[in-house]
Amino acid sequence: MQTALRQIGNSRGVIIPAPIIEQLHLDQPIEMLVQDGALLLKPSENPRVGWFDGYDPLKDDQPLASMTDLETEQEDWEW
C-alpha cells in the first residue's frame, strides 16, 4: 500500500487506514521505532504488567523486614 506524507503543523504524518489499525490492535499509546531502515509502529507495552501477580498483602506482615541499614545510616545524628 502506498500513501502520501501530509503536512501536520511543523511535522508530517500519514493516515493509517482503520483496517490496518484493527489488524495490528493499535491503541493509545503506540511505540514508534526505526528498524533496518523502516518505520515500525506497535502497541505500547506496559512495563509494569505483572508486577503484583501472585502477591498477597495478607501474607506480607513485615514488608520491610529484609531491608538493612547502610553503614552511613548507623552513624549518630546530631541536631
Query: How would you spell out the order of helices and strands?
Result: EEHEEH
Number of H/I helices: 2
Shape summary: elongated
**Number of E-type strands:** 4
Distance between the termini: 71 Å
Radius of gyration: 25 Å
Helix and strand content put the structural class at alpha+beta
Largest sheet: 2 strands, antiparallel
Binned strand content: 15-25%
Strand line-up in the sheet with most strands: 1-2
The averaged pLDDT comes out at 85
Low-confidence stretches: none
Helix content: 10-25%
Mind explaining what this structure looks like?
By secondary structure, this protein is an alpha+beta fold. It has a domain at 17-45. The protein has two helices and four strands; from the N terminus they run ββαββα. The strands form two sheets. Strands 1-2 form a two-stranded antiparallel sheet. A hairpin with a 2-residue loop joins strand 1 (6-8) and strand 2 (11-13). The relative contact order is 0.09.
Output the keywords.
single chain; 79 residues; alpha+beta; two-stranded antiparallel sheet; 2 helices; elongated
SSE layout and pairings?
Blueprint: E1 6-8, E2 11-13, H1 18-24, E3 30-35, E4 38-43, H2 71-74
Antiparallel strand pairs: 1-2, 3-4
Task: Summarize this entry quickly.
It contains two helices and four strands.
